[in-house]
């Protein structure tokens, strides 16, 4: 096969078109994968239309994190082999400066060094039958254990794409069994995944949000463990902070707070409320999508010796550990964690997929492209 089908995006003013393109070939340091399923994030319509003005290099093949099978490998591959089932990470890092990074087919970084990655070698992503990846962005999955013994489908394995993001943040603040973690908001696409991951890490989880029905849905999945406490936010900082701190069962407060605020939450009160519920020397990690500035209580941070950090995606070691969590039964997938609804579409149905992803409300649903 010398050609393959792919969705080609020329600009944000015209929709992607399905085209027959040359099949990519493996070179040193790379592999070609046969794409099995690609996650479609809820805001993909905004990326394609330019409503979210992410830096992109046109023309390109859009994409997302995928589950795939190795088709061919470059001459320097020593571990990956054709036929292996793999998790494909779209976080592309420059090999001579790993701090320079892009999201393949989604975000070009927005500064010259990062944009160079997307302008050149890493322009095309996974909305296609075949895709090229750096060897270090592919993670072998023990198919015999995960699919045959544990019974997970390819669709269920795509849950790894959502869970890897909060796992990166929670690993960065080094939480573990017995620690208490505030997750706010906890009912969204990544916030709900953070609940799932923190529970698997052995934490006591304080899930906060404004939607009681969605908090109740999380409680249905994890309520019997006794480690998930829901807090319905009121919008009053002092009231909410007191409720969050009380839920930790510690007079000093929570060990960590992970934030997945959406773009429109820049003026929300939950961030300050959660920071106020942290113990002295507690940690906060921001992973949300607020584009502008937020107000932080300076003196509280200083006197409590709090640490706040941003976390973009995750490290390779995080994905390797997360896959081990699944293979060893520590992190479950599918219905066992409330992921009840998988919707799959072909490449020709990309518009239906994007619209379905836009309509999905919070944790529990996953929209996929199946080339």
TrEMBL record:
Lineage top rank: taxon: Eukaryota
Q: Which region ranges are annotated with the description Disordered?
A: 1-22
Q: What is the lineage of its organism?
A: Eukaryota, Fungi, Dikarya, Ascomycota, Pezizomycotina
Q: Which GO terms describe its molecular function?
A: oxidoreductase activity
Return the Pfam families for the record: ADH_zinc_N
Which cellular component appears as one GO term in the record? mitochondrion
Q: Which InterPro entries does this one have?
A: ADH-like_C, GroES-like_sf, NAD(P)-bd_dom_sf, Zn-ADH-like_protein
Q: Where is each Alcohol dehydrogenase-like C-terminal domain found?
A: 191-326
According to UniProt, the name of this protein is: Alcohol dehydrogenase-like C-terminal domain-containing protein
């Amino acid at each position: 096969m010398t050609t393959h089908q792919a969705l080609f995006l020329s600009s944000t003013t015209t929709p992607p078109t399905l085209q027959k393109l040359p099949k990519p070939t493996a070179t040193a340091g790379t592999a070609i994968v046969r794409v099995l399923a690609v996650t479609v994030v809820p805001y993909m319509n905004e990326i394609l239309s330019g409503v979210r003005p992410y830096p992109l290099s046109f023309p390109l093949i859009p994409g997302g994190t995928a589950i795939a099978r190795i088709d061919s490998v470059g001459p320097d591959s020593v571990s990956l082999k054709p036929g292996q089932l793999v998790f494909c990470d779209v976080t592309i890092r420059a090999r001579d400066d790993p701090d320079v990074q892009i999201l393949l087919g989604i975000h070009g970084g927005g500064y010259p060094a990062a944009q160079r990655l997307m302008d050149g070698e890493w322009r095309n992503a996974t909305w296609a039958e075949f895709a090229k990846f750096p060897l270090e962005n592919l993670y072998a999955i023990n198919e015999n254990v995960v699919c045959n013994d544990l019974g997970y489908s390819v669709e269920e394995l795509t849950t790894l794409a959502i869970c890897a993001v909060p796992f990166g943040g929670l690993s960065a603040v080094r939480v573990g069994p017995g620690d208490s973690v505030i997750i706010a908001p906890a009912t969204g696409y990544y916030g709900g995944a953070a609940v799932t991951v923190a529970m698997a890490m052995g934490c006591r989880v304080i899930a906060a949000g404004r939607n009681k029905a969605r908090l109740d849905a999380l409680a249905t999945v994890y309520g019997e463990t006794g480690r998930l406490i829901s807090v319905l936010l009121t919008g009053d900082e002092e009231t909410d902070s007191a409720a969050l701190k009380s839920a930790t069962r510690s007079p000093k407060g929570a060990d960590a707070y992970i934030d997945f605020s959406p773009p429109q939450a820049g003026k929300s009160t939950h961030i300050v409320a959660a920071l106020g519920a942290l113990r002295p020397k507690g940690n906060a990690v921001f992973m949300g999508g607020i584009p502008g500035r937020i107000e932080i209580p300076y003196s509280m941070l200083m006197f409590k010796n709090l640490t706040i950090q941003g976390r973009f995606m995750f490290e390779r070691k995080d994905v390797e550990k997360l896959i081990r969590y699944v293979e060893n039964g520590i992190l479950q997938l599918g219905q066992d964690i409330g992921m009840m609804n998988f919707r799959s579409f072909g490449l020709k149905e990309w518009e239906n997929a994007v619209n379905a992803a836009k309509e999905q409300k919070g944790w529990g649903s996953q929209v996929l492209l199946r080339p």
